[in-house]
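#random but structural
TW: two for the price of one
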Amino acid sequence: MAREFTRTQRVADQVQKDLAQLIQRQIKDPRLGMVTVSYVKVAKDLGYADVYVTVMAFGAQTDEEQTVKESLSVLNKAAGFLRHELARGIKLRVMPELRFHFDESVDRGRRLHSLITQVNQPEPGSESTDDSADKADEE
């Protein structure tokens, strides 16, 4: 019987939890938007950790694409500091190098939802046609 969770998965889960707290509490850069750590994928040799984040613009920041770029820049510049802080809390021989990426799955899901909603919306003229057909069936 195989294990449900591999060691790399357990490390990734712990890195995700600790990193979310560190970003919220330790990084005080005003260019950083509201960042959520979506998931972390750790290499099998624990050399790298790809951290996928979602970013929400707030306040004076209205251009979401610009906010994402600035937030990723801030996070990638702070990767060394964050890695050091993670190493203080997680006892590993080698702490993975952090690489931050924007998680596009949320935007993709939002876009698919809007497309499905558009397809399911009845056309303005079709409602009256359906109603008249229902009334004819009742008579």
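TW: number two ↓
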Amino acid sequence: MDYDDDDHNDGGYGNEPEEDEMEHDMNDEEQEEGDGFNNKVDFNKPAKSNLPAPKAVAKEDRTTTPYMTKYERARILGARALQLSMNAPVLVDLEGETDALNIAMKELNNKMIPLVVRRYLPDNTYEDWEVSEMILP
């Protein structure tokens, strides 16, 4: 094998066309035809939806369980830890804790987290549960 060949150093791309050969500008007719769709979108307006807005269920008419799921717990702890890391006021007495997640866990165990869990239901309603009224996992 002779390494002095010209095609060795081009990485196997010697047969590619030059850049000016690859570019193809659309002529005026191609630009006017388009794809037949109106592609003008105003991103400042909210999207239209045919679905009705979800409705709240009264506190006394709630049907879901008061038990907090492990997924709700994880989301609550993460959200509260983020708030604490951004200098939100701590709602429990600290005993040397400095980690935001540990403080959030302590607040959750004392049911002091000021957040609400919203559970969406298949019948287009939702239930709001305060963290303080939920049973922890």
